[in-house]
Amino acid sequence: MMNPKKPGLVSPAFLLLVVLTGWNDLNFKGCISCFACKTGGGKSYGRCAVKDDLRPIFKQIEAADALILGSPIYFGIVTGEMRSFMERLLFPYVTYTDPPQSLFPKKMPTGFIYTMNITEEMMQEWGYQQLFDNNQRLLQMAFGASESLCCFDTYQFKDYSKVVADRFDPEKKARRRREVFPQDCDTALAMGARLARTPG
Ligand SMILES: Cc1cc2nc3c(=O)[nH]c(=O)nc-3n(C[C@H](O)[C@H](O)[C@H](O)COP(=O)(O)O)c2cc1C
Asked: Does the CB atom of residue 115 touch ligand 1 within 6 A?
């Protein structure tokens, strides 16, 4: 679910689905703290001044009706690429004013889809929920209403017999892939359709 090689643009003015794993062909880094986006009266106020492959993507996001981010969980957080992307996307919009404001030119519903190897029970126990809540709060500050969706107990390897991973029961994993994963995909699709219909 989370490994497309490119961000999928379902329809430019309708729904932008950004999935970052596998964006190895895009050249971008995290925020470099240049503060051009925070410099009052500057030409980059409220915009990221760094010129790299994210620039056209930020333009597409400004034109979109809804935004969905997706990331697998790596060591308890989103991928490094997703972190870098979020720094660059969100920092220019959220102001340091009191109270903070958003410089994003409109309201836009957003969602975040997470996939992970662990079960829902382990996720609760290990405190991942706090990360999801933090990301949701950040997206709300920048764009407006936001929701999160989790896909648990993913089928990580194409062939479990070829990897050293005896912690997992391949049959149980395969069953879940067959029976639950398609429902997860349907839920994700429904979220996308709902967000795209939600007025900003
Ligand atoms: C470097 C790395 C670290 C990972 N760390 C975690 C983790 O901390 N918790 C977890 O549940 N899954 C972890 N996983 C498993 C991925 O989350 C899992 O493979 C992913 O959800 C599968 O979805 P995908 O098919 O969309 O990649 C890790 C995988 C990799 C490659």
From this structure: yes
